[in-house]
C-alpha cells in the first residue's frame, strides 16, 4: 500500500501505546485496536456508558440570591470580592465517560512476527493486520457495523488448523465475566459518583441498584477446529478461519430516565444484535457496513494536485512532514480522517461525540471526557454541515434540546432568570447545565460561565441554513433558540453608559490583570459574552423571520442588539477581551473567545467590518501560533476567515506536527500540541476536537458562505495552487464542485438541494445564481 494514500493509515509494527492504535466506531460502539501479533488488545467503549444518573438541576436553589451582591461588588470595582462571591453560584461537576472493557485475543502460537503490516482504510472504515509467524501467514480484519450494531473480527491462517487462541474480557468497572453456551458474557455497572475534581474517580465498593448497566457478548463462528471454554475464557483450537462477533449494550434510556429502574434491557439488546448478526456471513455484514458508511464518506472528495512524497508508514510520514517536507496527500488524509471520526463517533441521538469521541481507555479520563461547552463540544461539529455530514450533527442538536429542559431550572435557581434556559461550561450525558466548581471550590475563570446556550443555539441555525429544513426549524430548532435568547434578555443589565452588558462575566479560562495588580476572572461586559449573545440574537431574529413568527419578541431582540456595549479596540490595536483595556495574565492564552464574531460567528468580516477584522488579526498576532491542538484548529479557521490562506496553511502544517505517544520514553521527547502517530489530535493529552477543527478549516479555506453569498477559494494557500473538491456544502442549501489551476478558479458546478438564490464570489468576480430544487449549474470562470 502506498504511503501517499489519502485514505489509508498504515504501520509496520503493532501499537504499543493508545496514541498509536487504530480506532473504529459505528456512532455508538467504539473499538481501539492495537493489532499485536502474539496478543491483540482491543479497548471497547459505548457512547452511552457514563457514571451517574439523571441530574437534579435544582441542586443549589438559593444560588441566584448571590447575583445582586456580585453585581454590586463589580459596580464598586471590587474585583477580588466579586471573584469570591462568584464561587457561591457554583454547583456539582460533571459525570464521566466510562471505559467499557478490554477484549484480548491471545495466541497459543508464540514466535517472532515478520512482514508485519497494519492499516486503517478510512474510505471503507475497515482495519487489517497481517504478519507471518513460523512460516504461516495470519490475517485479521476488523470493523464496527452501524446497520448490524456489531463488531466483527475475521481471523485467517494460511495453514490448515493454524489458528489457536484464547479470548478474554476484562473491565476497569465493577463487572463479572463468565462463559454461557459458548458465549463470553461480561455484565457490569458504571460508577455512581461524579468525578469531583476531574482527576480521581472515587472508588465504589459494590454493584448496587443505581447507575448504568452494561453487557458485552462475544461469540466465535469457526470453519473448522474446536471451541472450548473455561469459566472466563473462550478458546479456539486448530482452526483455519474464524469470525468473532462482539455485541455491546447499556441500559441508558435517555438523559431523564433512571438507567437502573427505567433503563433499557441491555442483556436482551446485546443478545438480539448478536443472534441476528451471527446468522449472517462475514461478507454480508461487511458489505452492509461498507455501503452504509460510504453513503456518508463518499459525498466529499478532495485533490490537491501531484505529490512527490515517498512510500512511508504513517508515523514516519508524519515525522517527515514535520521536517517541512511536502505531502499533499497527508493533508488530504488528515481532512478525510476528521470526517471519518465524525461518522464513526456521532450517530446516537442525544449523545454527541465527547472530548475523546467514543474512544476512552481511562477510568479517570482527562477532564472526565465530558462535554466541554466553552469551545470543545462545538468544535467537534464545525465540519458537520460544510463537509456534507449533516446527519452527524443531529446527536448534538438533540442534546441541545435536552439541555434546554434541565437549563430552564438552572436559569432560575443559579441566575434568577425566569424565562428561557441556560447552560454552563461542562455537561455530560445527563444534560447537566449548572455552573460547575464543586459548590465553590473551583476557580471562576472556568467554572462560572453561563454562555453555552448562546453558542449552542447557533448550531441550530447552521443546521437550518445549510439544509433549508424549515420543518426542523419550526418544530424543534426555533423554540430552543428562542429559549436561549430569552435567558440572555433576562440576564443582561445596563452599564453606566446605558449599554447592555453581562454581569458577572468571565472570558473562558483566561484572567485579567486589574490596575491594582489583582489577577482575576470575574468582570462585567466581557467581549466574548457579547459576541456570542450577538450571534444568538441575530440568528434567532433571522429564524423568526424565516418562520414569519414572533414579531414582538423579534422586536425586543432588535432593540436589545442596538444597545449592546460596542466592541473596543485596545491600545495595541487588538480586539479587547475585557470591558477595560487590561492586560491578560497570559497574553498567549489558548482561548480566543473574544474573536467569536469572526469565527464561528459571522458578524466580523474583512469586508463588512474591516477595523474589527484588523483588530482580530492583531489579537492573533499577539497570541502567536504556538498553542494546544484544539486551539490551533480554531486559529486556522480564524486566519481562513481573515482570508489569509498562507498563515492558515502554516498553522495547519503545525497542527500536523508529530507528537510522541503519552508515556513513551525518548531522549528528545516531542511534546505539545500537534498530532500523534495514529493522527489523533494532541491537546495534549488526546482530545478529538483538534481533528475536527483542523478538518473544518480545510473546508473553510476552500469555501466560505453566508445566507446570501458563497466565496470560492477565499483563503487558498500557495501550496495548494492546483486542485479540485467535490461535495463541500454552502449555506443556502448548496453543494459545490470546483477545480482550480495556478490558484485560478477554472470551473464550478453548483447544486441546489431546495432551490434558492445566491451570489458566487471569487476574488473581484461576482455572479448571481438562481436555481430550482435539484437543479445543477456549471459556471466557467
Describe this protein's structure:
One of its GO terms (molecular function) is hydrolase activity. Residues 281-702 form the Glycosyl hydrolase family 95 catalytic domain. Residues 9-253 form the Glycosyl hydrolase family 95 N-terminal domain. Residues 704-770 form the Alpha fucosidase A-like C-terminal domain. Keywords: Hydrolase. This protein has 17 helices and 34 strands. The chain is an alpha+beta fold. Helix content is 29%, strand content 24%. The longest helix has 22 residues, at 394-415. Strands 1-6-7-8-9-16-13-12-11 form a 9-stranded antiparallel beta sheet. Strands 2-3-4-5-10-15-14 form a 7-stranded antiparallel beta sheet. Helix 8 packs antiparallel against helix 10, helix 12 runs antiparallel to helix 13 (551-562) and helix 15 (629-641) packs antiparallel against helix 16. The protein is globular, with a radius of gyration of 26 Å.
SSE arrangement:
Elements: E1 8-11, E2 22-25, E3 29-33, E4 39-46, H1 67-75, H2 79-86, E5 101-107, E6 114-121, E7 126-133, E8 136-145, E9 150-157, E10 163-170, E11 174-180, E12 183-189, E13 213-222, E14 226-229, E15 234-239, E16 241-250, H3 266-278, H4 282-297, E17 301-303, H5 314-322, H6 328-345, E18 371-372, H7 376-379, H8 394-415, E19 426-427, H9 444-447, H10 452-467, H11 470-491, E20 493-494, E21 500-501, E22 512-513, E23 519-520, H12 527-547, H13 551-562, E24 583-584, H14 610-623, H15 629-641, H16 645-655, E25 674-675, E26 681-682, H17 689-702, E27 703-705, E28 709-712, E29 723-730, E30 734-741, E31 744-752, E32 756-762, E33 765-771, E34 776-780
Helix pairs in contact: 1-2, 6-17, 8-10, 8-11, 10-11, 10-12, 11-12, 12-13, 15-16, 15-17, 16-17
